[in-house]
Amino acid sequence: MENLANFLLGVTVFEVVKWFFVVGLVMYVAFGIVIVKQVGVMTEAVEDEFNGVVFILAWAHLLLAVGLLILAIVVL
Fold first, then answer.
1. pLDDT at position 10
2. Which of 31, 42, 18, 41 is closest to 66 using CA atoms?
3. How far apart are CA 30 and CA 38, in angstroms?
4. N or C: which terminal CB in the chain sees fewer CB atoms within 10 Å?
5. Cα atoms in the 13 Å half-sphere on the side-chain side of 60
6. What's residue 58's pLDDT?
7. pLDDT one-digit tens code per residue, 6-20
8. CB 28: neighbour CB atoms within 10 A?
9. Residues 22, 28, 32, 38: what is their CA dihedral angle, to the nearest 10 degrees?
């Protein structure tokens, strides 16, 4: 019990904020995965000349979200 109390007293506000950011970015990456999946379904259902552009933008968004998550883990 004493170890738990020492651990809780040693947690700083920065560490709490850091983990909130990391958890939020994990949810944002999940959102990016959903976007890629939905764009894939849309491109099968709708034939348009801009499907390739939207597909590339969806993947770019996902890759940037993953990169931001990795950067946040390394920097914070």
1. 80
2. 31
3. 12
4. N
5. 6
6. 98
7. 777 788 999 999 999
8. 15
9. 150
State mean pLDDT over 52-67.
97
Cα–Cα distance, 23 to 29 (Å, whole number): 10
Instruction: Give the CA distances from residue 35 to residues 2, 14, 19, in Å, rounded to whole numbers and listed in that order.
Output: 46, 31, 24
Best CA proximity match to 70, nearest among 13, 12, 21, 16: 21
Does the pTM of the predicted model rise above 0.85? Answer: no
DSSP one-letter string for 12-52: -HHHHHHHHHHHHHHHHHHHHHHHHHHHHHHHHH---TTHH
Q: What are phi and psi of 48, to 5 degrees?
A: -150, 160
Instruction: Taking residues 41-67, report their average pLDDT.
Output: 95
